[in-house]
Each structure stands twice: as C-alpha cells, then as structure tokens.
What does this fold into?
Amino acid sequence: MNLSFEFDSTVNSRVIDSATSCALYDITTEIHAPADGVEPKGKNDNTNSTTTIRDTRGPAPKAVAIWDRAHDRREDRVAIAGESKRLAEWLVPQQEDTQARLQFVFTTREGERYAWTQKARPQSTFELVNTETQRAIARSHPGRPVRHYLGRLVPAGPGAPPKTLYLEAERDVAESALMDAALLAFVVLETDRREQAMGSSAYRWLGAVDDKGLGGRVLPAPHPYAS
It folds into this structure.
C-alpha cells in the first residue's frame, strides 16, 4: 500500500492512499511568533512551531500525533497515544558500532520497538523495521523524478510511482495504530534530513550526532548544542 504526500512537504500535506486517492492523514503546521530576543533564521524557519497529524478516515478528523518544535531543539516534544515526551526520549538513536548506520527507535504503547533507518543508497530513503525480528515493514520513496521541458517541469514518464514523496507499507501496518507513530517519526526524520541537505545543522534535538547527520556516528564527546 502506498501512502503518498499530496504536496512535496513533510509538515503541510495530506497523505493519501495512492490506489484510491482517499485521504488517510492531514498534516498541518502552525508557526508561532519567536520568543522575545530570538531572531528567526529566515522565512522558512520552522522553529517554534506545532505540527499536527490528523487521521481523516473517520467521520471527523482526529489528532493522533503532535510535534512541538522549539527554538532550542533539545526541548522539542511529541505527543502520541495520549503521552507527551521530549522528542529525544521518544525517538532514540541506536548504533551497533561506529561503522553501522544509525537507527532511530520508538516504542509503541504495547511495548513493541520499531526503528527507521536511512538507507545508504539512495540516501533520501528510509526503512522501517521491527527491531526484534529485523523485518522491514515500510520504506520511503522520494517519488519519481521530473525533468525540464521547454521551461516546464514534467513527469519522467507514464507508469512511474507517485511524483511526490510516499511511503510503501504493508497494508496491515498502514491501517493500524502503528502507522500513527511511524508517520510521526518519519515526518521528524525526513524534515531534518531535508534541512540538512539545505545546509542547516540537523538533528539538534539529539545533541549527540555529528554534522554528517544520519550517516554519521554517535560521538562520545558532547555536541555543541548539548548542555
């Protein structure tokens, strides 16, 4: 089952079933005024914002996950399944050794642990695995490329996957409460990955990852953003 982002945005987009075009989630972000004495970094500065993920499959949209993003990213918080936690406590980086890629692990209310891992090739994709079985149950795709033709952007060709970002997931996963948490974690990671690609210092909510981002190693020394 493909869950497609209607727009090429991780924080302001509907997520639809590619096969039926039915809306599954609605992701919206409210930007808050900067705190006194804090200057925004630019017009696209999303610090001090609240991203809400709503399940739209019922009779009325229902908020299932919230990401409160602070100017001091160490204070980012998430709310999921009725619980509110610091983001760094809910989405925890783990690494078997310095050569392995980081896994970002979250735990469901039932105690099951899942991890998003950024793939080596291509680097703009993630894979979701059950940490106990290491079985992949979902993966992200950047969507089909576009090309310039007479000054316009046109799809690369017919029969290609959706143009925008999408998640490919097993149907039982996509239709379960697990998808609420998986989507929240993915939105956080993909947003930071995109910001890093644009030259921003990403993953500052961790305070323990080097400037290579997900492909880097966990450092024993404090990160400049750490206390």
Notes: The helical segments are 87-90, 171-174, 178-197. Residues 125 and 140 are 5 Å apart (CA to CA). The longest strand covers residues 23-31.
